[in-house]
Design goal:
It is a single chain. The chain is an alpha/beta fold. It has one domain. Helices cover 29% and strands 9% of the residues. It is built from three helices and three strands. A three-stranded parallel β-sheet has the order 2-1-3, with no helix packed on it. The two termini are 18 Å apart. It comes from Neptunomonas concharum.
């Protein structure tokens, strides 16, 4: 799953997603409202809970993935 940076959209990860797809990866380029909600709300209500595999994120959005730690 690709997560774009704050104040960005999923379009900012489009080229990376296309390249990963060419390499045979199943890619989900997920968009979310990065400027209208806080990080916890984005992580708990907008990012899919069932993420199996790797998450590639941009800049400060790494904190979103912390909500997935057991």
């Amino acid at each position: 799953m690709l997560l774009h940076g704050m104040a960005r959209t999923e379009r900012s990860m489009g080229k990376l997603g296309a390249e990963l797809t060419k390499e045979g990866y199943f890619v989900v380029n997920y968009g979310y409202p990065s400027t209208s909600l806080d990080i916890e709300e984005i992580a708990t209500s907008h990012i899919p809970k069932a993420v199996f595999g790797d998450v590639v994120n941009d800049s400060g959005t790494a904190i979103i993935t912390r909500f997935y730690q057991p």
